[in-house]
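Protein: Neurotransmitter-gated ion-channel ligand-binding domain-containing protein
Species: Dreissena polymorpha
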Amino acid sequence: MIESSDVNVKYYPFDFQSCNTSFTALGYDLIEVNRMRMTYSIDLTLYHGNSMWTLESTYVSVENIATGDEKQEVFYTFNLRRKPGYAFVTVLCPILFLGALNAFVFLLIPESGERIDYSITTLLSIAV
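Structure follows.
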């Protein structure tokens, strides 16, 4: 089994990823593999999506390997699209919220001595 996926985050969070997986039955001949009913599509009945990615499409291809024995290699391709709302909720919203909280430092009374503590706490929240 070989899996490859070149991650391209140039258009993050609106990116599109293509992941390839290949399987080879090295212990079986071509005749034995063809006896099994092989569909050229991926069964997605048990697939459950998640909050970060959408499965756009799938593709299956089969190639014969030119070795001494007749072998087949099956290639599965999964095309995924990132949901931009997830990045907005987990990255952008907290930064905007903490930035707005940082503006409230000017509402504190200067004589209380809490301005610096409040500013440093807010800055640490943004940094972490």
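Remarks: The helical segments are 30-35, 84-103, 115-127.
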